[in-house]
Design goal:
By secondary structure, the chain is of the alpha+beta class. Helices cover 19% and strands 36% of the residues.
């Protein structure tokens, strides 16, 4: 009896020690919240939860034993030979000119999935379908509609580790890279609930307790996602472990909730943090302060500099995150405009008549740097928009109005196959300093079956965004996404930044959907009249009348 009590006490102490240190076996869990007041009065909140597995066995290590690592994700990745995975759900456009750099690379409206699957291209096709269907069930999304028709295989874009959201320059591994996008996918609490269940403490303690759906979806921008992949060493030759990240990025307007000049973080989210997550090794809140106009209370645990701005760092294991209070004062408009704009921004729109049989795409890429900037451009269009590569034209306009024609240094074009695959364009080129570059190409609109039209056919088809990536140097206008990934502590001096353009609507030739109704009603009317007359003649009892009658 005594040995049973001693064994139970020993196990209890071992578990308490693991909980107290935030380390469960070879797994380390950390959580961080970034709060940044924006210059238009809105507030940026970026939640990031990370589970790092320090063993080099990778996903295979979680085949039978799961502690902090989500079992669903581990089994799906193992079953489908997934080496790297990135999934995001985004609603709203990120306003780069007003909000600056985003804290994450995912900015495209809709659902995006990037995966690198081990094996040959043919073998990975079935694994890709299994992966999208499994993730569709886990996150209650329509990812099962990602098929060959809207799946591309980039060769220049995303050539970095998806586990780091495409932000850290990690050499690509062997395998097949696939990219799928659903521009019509909406984000709601049905996606948030299974996402929260992946957290070790869910929404019961820690920073997860602040995830109030009523506030998260009353917003101007919302992005939610996960990433899974290897952690490489500083040189990039050997794998140090496995990392699984979850992030939520929202832009809220406190004035919408009746909060103006003074409010606390708990008041903004209408939630309290009763205690830190007991299995977290680090639980922090970073408050990025503008140059003037904002005061934060109480005093932080420490102060640091993030992207050139003063940052307060609070330790949630010692302080209450919900009690962090912000007080705003009226500032001069010139002071609020001091924020540095992103080096590269992009916008896209469609040309041509909406109801015509042809059209075109024009993407404007702005380079604000004083030096030439090398970029990679990627665009994938559905098969019913038949792209003509010979119409590609690239023109750069400088501040003096001089126009220079540019030629890409590398071009990869994959033509579309009807109902088989989309067309994709990948370009690498160098943008001259301080220029606006217009990239144009034309397409023809194909005819599709009447059953392939969406319910609101006259609205048009949502076409996914184009993506521009570039490498940002650490010394000039550092992006927020790079600072959050701790890129600057590595030996590399650059990180990869992705910029997403807006969606656009493509109006295809639509049939007269009322014609089947007209034909059916007309035919039924004729049949009813004919049947009624014939039935009357067949069933009537005819009698011969005499003259006297």
């Amino acid at each position: 009896m005594l040995w049973q009590i001693a064994l139970t006490a020993g196990c209890y102490l071992l578990v308490r020690t693991a909980l107290g240190t935030g380390i469960d076996g070879d797994e380390i869990f950390s959580e961080n919240l970034l709060v940044k007041p924006l210059r238009d009065g809105k507030t940026l909140l970026h939640f990031e939860f990370e589970i790092k597995q320090t063993s080099t066995i990778g996903i295979q290590a979680s085949q039978h034993h799961y502690h902090l690592f989500p079992r669903q994700i581990g089994e799906i990745a193992l079953q489908n030979n997934v080496e790297e995975l990135y999934l995001s759900f985004t609603q709203g456009n990120w306003r780069q000119d007003a909000w600056g750099y985003p804290p994450t690379s995912s900015q495209g409206v809709g659902a995006e999935i990037i995966a690198r699957i081990n094996g040959t291209e043919q073998a990975s096709l079935g694994k890709w379908k299994g992966l999208t269907n499994a993730l569709s069930g886990v996150f209650c999304a329509s990812l099962n509609f990602i098929s060959d028709e809207n799946t591309s295989k980039p060769r220049l874009m995303f050539n970095v580790s998806a586990s780091n959201s495409g932000d850290i320059n990690v050499p690509a591994h062997h395998g097949t890279l696939r990219h799928g996008f659903l521009p019509r996918e909406s984000v709601c609490t049905e996606n948030l609930t299974p996402w929260i269940k992946q957290l070790p403490c869910q929404a019961k303690s820690g920073l997860g307790a602040l995830l109030n759906p009523y506030r998260l979806y009353n917003m101007h921008f919302h992005s939610m996602g996960i990433s899974l992949g290897p952690v490489m060493d500083a040189i990039g030759d050997e794998q140090e472990g496995l990392v699984y990240k979850q992030h939520i990025t929202v832009v809220l307007d406190p004035r919408t909730f009746g909060l103006d000049k003074s409010w606390a973080l708990g008041e903004l989210m209408e939630r309290d943090v009763e205690a830190a997550c007991p299995v977290s090794s680090k639980s922090t809140v970073q408050v990025v302060l503008p140059e003037a106009g904002v005061q934060v209370f109480p005093e932080p645990a420490r102060r640091e500099t993030l992207v050139g701005q003063n940052t307060y760092v609070y330790d949630i294991q010692k302080q209450d995150a919900a009690s962090i209070r912000f007080e705003f004062s009226t500032t001069d408009e010139k002071e609020t405009q001091a924020q540095l704009l992103p080096v590269v921004t992009a916008h896209r729109h469609v040309n041509g008549h909406g109801g015509g049989s042809s059209g075109g795409v024009e993407t404007e890429i702005i380079n604000r740097s004083n030096k030439p900037m090398g970029i990679t451009y990627f665009d994938s269009l559905p098969w019913y928009l038949r792209v003509y590569l010979h119409t590609l034209a690239i023109e750069a306009t400088d501040s003096d109005g001089r126009i220079t024609k540019l030629r890409p240094t590398n071009t990869m074009f994959t033509p579309a196959i009807d109902r088989g695959r989309p067309s994709s364009i990948e370009l690498t080129m160098t943008l001259p300093a301080n220029t606006r570059t217009a990239l144009r190409y034309s397409f023809d609109k194909g005819f599709i079956k009447y059953s392939e039209h969406p319910p609101d056919a006259n609205r048009g088809f949502n076409i996914g965004p184009a993506i521009i990536s570039y490498r940002s140097n650490a010394d000039v206008n550092r992006p927020l996404v790079c600072a959050l990934q701790n890129t600057w502590s590595r030996q590399q001096s650059e990180c990869v930044v992705r910029v997403y353009t807006e969606l656009f609507l493509a109006s295809l030739p639509t049939p007269d959907f009322s014609m089947p109704y007209n034909v059916i009603t007309f035919t039924c009317t004729i049949l009813a009249l004919f049947f009624g007359r014939i039935f009357n003649l067949l069933t009537r009892d005819f009698a011969v009348l005499k003259d006297s009658d």
